Amino acid sequence: MRKFLIFLGTILFWYLYFVAARILFLLYNYSFSSELSLHEIIMTFVKGFKLDLSFVSYFSVLTSFIFGLFFFLNGKILYKIVFYYFSFIAVVLSLVTIADCELYRFWGFRLDATPLLYLKNPGEAMASTSFSLFVFLIIFTFFIVFITLFTIKKIFKKQFLLLGKGHFSELPLYLLMIVGFVVPIRGGLGLAPLNAGNAYFSHKPFANHAAINTAWNLSKSLLELSDPDPFINKINRSEAEKIVQSMNPVNTDRTRLLKTKRPDIIILVLEGIPERLIDTVINGIEICPNLNSLKSESIYFNRFFANGDRSEKGLASIFSGYPNLAHTSVMKYPEKTQKLGYLSKELIKHHYAGISFYYGGNIDFANMRSYFINGGFNELISMNDFNKKLYNSKWGAHDEYVLNKWFEDLEKLKSPFFSSCFTLSSHEPFEIPDKAVIKGNDENSKFISSVHYTDKCVGDFIRKAQKSDWWDSTLIIIVSDHGHRFPGEVPYYSQDKFHVPMFWTGGAIAAKDTIIRKTVSQIDIIPTLLSQMGIKPDKFRFGHDFSNKYQYGMVLYCFNLGFGFISDNSSFIYDVKGMQTIEESSKLSVKIKNQAFSLYDVIHYDFTEK
Fold first, then answer.
1. Which ranges in 225-310 belong to alpha helices (H)?
2. Domain final residue pick, 207, 224, 241
3. pLDDT tens across 369-417, in order?
């Protein structure tokens, strides 16, 4: 029993170490922390608890293994093994803690793998640090290590020496604890694993950053660095930048899409619905009758593409006009998303209210919380705002309940407002409260039935909106976050997988029953919308204004370690890892290929430097 209590004591000790490290971080960066209220400071510890416990659990797994494996040793020898292990941890954590305190003052984000990018040029990295500061940081680090090890000796040495040899019966207990640590490591029993976004709670970036456990953040970043997005480098950077700049014409002759420059704006993001299901009939059943009928009341884009293949990639493209990468997503990095442009922030400048995002699922999934907080959203509604009776088995509240609540809240907003919602019922495991319209338990059939359900929910929402007081002044943009391999089994790199629907509807549109056949994508939404509103889209340089009559259509979409580039009359799909072409159209020109390579690399330059 004594040994088990000592083991629990080590867990508590390292948790308190991270509490002390957070206090040190706040004191070291007093110029930032002095702007926080007492409540916000307390919340950095409350919101940081899961990340602290998660990282403590990581190395407590090995502690548990040591206690179980060496059950036959007396306390004196066991203490030596544990002390050497803790000494190693103390040195590493102290180095990380002190480096993080200092680097935050310059970079404005918690320590991650970014410094490794500078180790290729260590001379330049050292040149930015004065010798006196370097010596101070080394001495400070040794001081922290000394205090940590001194405390460990004072607390634990005597307790270990009182231990006799253990018994074989102890081994199962510690092995069981190793398995049990999976829960705090993941941050709970939920579907979404722990991420930095779980610590976000404030519109003040420093408050959110202070809640992050820097050792956890660095470890996660290093794991994600194992297979980074490769550059192509077929065209030097300066030339690539010129090519990308030339892809945006300066002519201002635009097609009018809106009746007013200050419409109320609603964005409804559909989970994974491909364009090929919009006009499809299967076994005599129209899969998307509501969306299909909406074409006559809308501006419909029949050559519209998602820029990525996952939700977090689609959301960043839609709400920030930021393109995707072949291996990672900008939303994974809160320190980068705080530097992005956001449609919400542009609208806030022009006195828009009701900046909100509704989602029936876990808002902490894929760092969504941190992303939308960084974007200035002042209301985030998620699964915790709904009764659990309205949930499916995994993801959260069904679409009809989320859209009903969203509509009720929209009725309370004053113009001009900006609000958004993200559906989820068409996500795996494709569970819906209605009877399936396509028989079969295979994934393909269940997916199609879930899309039919979401279509019904959207139709109900639109019919209520058409009767509302705000309909005539509102632009509603309905767009998918990404495509899908179903129906059928389209290849992961195929254009068909990325081809998704987009509607502009509502009383604020200047034309109805209109089809735009230009090749456009999610990152083009914000530049076009802002241009229609008379606002310069300067912060969204990768997107294009598709209402510009001189802008030719083009899209770059990314999949795992590859990309596709589509223009109005040609296409090109490239394997970045293997540096080889997967597919290309017969009309593909050298100019189009150079545009594709240049755009891909320039996006990566931009991402790396954020």
1. 237-246, 289-294
2. 224
3. 999 999 999 999 999 999 999 998 778 999 999 999 999 999 999 999 9
pLDDT by residue (tens digit) across 180-215? Answer: 888 888 888 776 788 888 898 988 878 999 999 999
> Distance between the two ends of the chain, CA-based, in angstroms?
51
Whether residue 34 is found in the same domain as residue 181:
yes
Which of 493, 522, 546 is the last residue before a domain boundary? Answer: 546
Cβ-defined contacts of 85-94 (< 8 Å, 24+): 86/10, 86/149, 86/152, 87/149, 89/14, 89/59, 90/145, 90/148, 90/149, 90/152, 91/145, 93/17, 93/21, 93/148, 93/215, 94/141, 94/144, 94/145, 94/148
The tokens for 205 are 């970036």
Task: Quickly count: other Cβ atoms within 10 Å of residue 39's Cβ.
Answer: 10
Whether residues 201 and 271 fall in one domain = no
Pair (164, 18) in one structural domain: yes
Residues constituting the chain: 610
* Domain identity same for 451 and 529: yes
DSSP classification of residue 520: E
**Is 289 in the same domain as 427?**
yes
* Rounded distance between C-alpha atoms, residue 405 and residue 134, angstroms: 55
For 315-354, b/e burial (b = at least 16 CB within 10 A) is bbbbbbbbbbbbbbbbbbbbbbbbebbbbbbbbbeeebbb
Structural domain contains residue 182: yes
Instruction: Determine, yes or no, domain membership for 392.
Output: yes
- The sign of the dihedral angle between the CA atoms of 199, 204, 207, 209 is positive
Show the beta-strand stretches assigned E in 36-89. none
Chunked in runs of 10, what are the mean pLDDT values of the chain (610 residues)? 87 97 96 93 96 94 84 87 95 94 80 61 49 84 95 94 78 79 84 82 87 92 67 90 90 90 98 96 96 97 96 97 89 91 98 97 90 96 94 88 98 97 94 94 94 98 98 98 91 93 98 96 98 95 94 92 92 85 90 94 91
* Pairing of the two strands 379-381 and 353-359: parallel
What's the Cα-to-Cα distance from 599 to each of 322, 500, 521, rounded to whole Å?
A: 12, 22, 14
342-347 contacts at long range (C-beta below 8 A, 24 or more positions apart): 342/374, 342/375, 342/376, 343/319, 343/418, 343/525, 343/526, 343/529, 343/530, 344/319, 344/375, 344/376, 344/377, 344/418, 345/375, 345/376, 346/526, 346/530, 346/535, 346/539, 347/265, 347/416, 347/418
- Tell me whether the omega of the peptide bond preceding residue 416 falls within 30 degrees of 0, making it cis: yes
* Domain enclosing residue 362, as ranges: 257-546
CA-based radius of gyration for the chain: 27
> Using an 8 Å Cβ cutoff, are 366 and 332 in contact?
yes
**d(C-alpha 251, C-alpha 255), whole Å:** 12
Q: Kindly report the CATH number assigned to the domain that includes residue 519.
A: 3.40.720.10
Contacts of 154 (CB under 8 A, 6+ apart): none
- Is the pTM higher than 0.85? The answer reads no
My answer on whether 212 and 353 are in the same domain is no
Residues 57 and 147 both lie in one domain:
yes
Q: How far apart are CA 266 and CA 319, in angstroms?
A: 12
- Same domain, yes or no, for 336 and 439? yes
Say how many domains are in the chain: 2
